[in-house]
Specification:
Layout: E1 2-6, H1 14-22, E2 25-28, E3 42-47, E4 50-55, E5 58-59, E6 70-71, H2 77-89, H3 99-107, H4 113-128, E7 134-136, H5 147-157, E8 162-165, H6 175-180, E9 184-187, H7 208-215, H8 219-223
Parallel strand pairs: 1-2, 1-8, 2-7, 8-9
Antiparallel strand pairs: 3-4, 5-6
Helix pairs in contact: 2-3
Length: about 230
């Protein structure tokens, strides 16, 4: 059994969902430190002028954990993002496939960034047709503070024998700790597929909604590299 773990991100890219798809169990690591100006409160969409950020404003104080970070509800980010997606994707072939999903994001009241991200990821996993069960790390009980020991503990919690790490994991992971626990580590090596987009040349590393809005129910096959 393969376990993968990752911080909950906002509207993640294709590789994030490839990692979920490859795992038997996927854990959303919400109880580690929030990283400002990374992917936990923003992601990219494509526009006629190139890519742009969709950013959720947060009230972050170092060293808060992801599940402690509140959304800045005084900023009208939902209206702004809804308009950005409408403006840039209204001519996409499958625009209406995300009507309910976008309504859920932009019409609901969200207090915490982890609450929003977890809901977004669960919804997108279902829309893509991925059947990997999702769990939340803070609901698994006390976990070690050491990063590798934490991942070993999560893998053991599910009785798994394999941990799926990100492509850069070999540069900072202490692989001996996994070996000592009888856990095999494999690394993701995701090759980003090209697909039909709106506007000019292909732009990789966009939010997965770019793929879904352009390819609908073919999105999972493309994400897996099968055009």
């Amino acid at each position: 059994m393969v376990v993968a773990v990752h911080q909950p991100q906002y509207l993640p890219w294709l590789g994030y969902f490839n990692k979920i798809d490859r795992a038997d169990i996927f854990v959303l690591l919400d109880n580690v430190q929030f990283k400002k100006n990374e992917w936990q409160n923003r992601n990219k969409i494509k526009t006629a002028q190139g890519w742009q950020w969709l950013t959720v404003p947060v009230r972050y104080k170092y060293p808060q954990l992801i599940n402690e970070v509140a959304i800045n509800t005084s900023v009208k980010w939902q209206h702004k993002q809804r308009q950005s997606i409408l403006t840039n994707y209204k001519k996409s072939p499958y625009y209406h496939n995300l009507d309910e999903f976008l309504e859920e994001i932009f019409a609901s009241h969200w207090e915490m960034i982890s609450q929003l991200n977890i809901a977004v990821i669960r919804r997108l996993v279902a829309l893509l047709g991925i059947d990997t069960p999702l769990f939340v790390a803070s609901e698994l009980g006390e976990l070690p503070h050491d990063a590798d020991e934490r991942l070993v503990a999560i893998t053991e919690y599910f009785g798994a024998d394999t941990y799926l790490a990100g492509s850069g994991g070999s540069q900072y992971m202490d692989l001996q700790k996994y070996a000592n626990s009888g856990i095999k580590v494999i690394f993701q090596d995701y090759k980003h597929p090209e697909y039909n987009q709106l506007f000019q040349e292909f732009e990789p590393y966009m939010s997965v909604i770019d793929l879904v809005l352009n390819h609908g129910d073919k999105s999972l096959s493309i994400l897996r590299g099968n055009k």
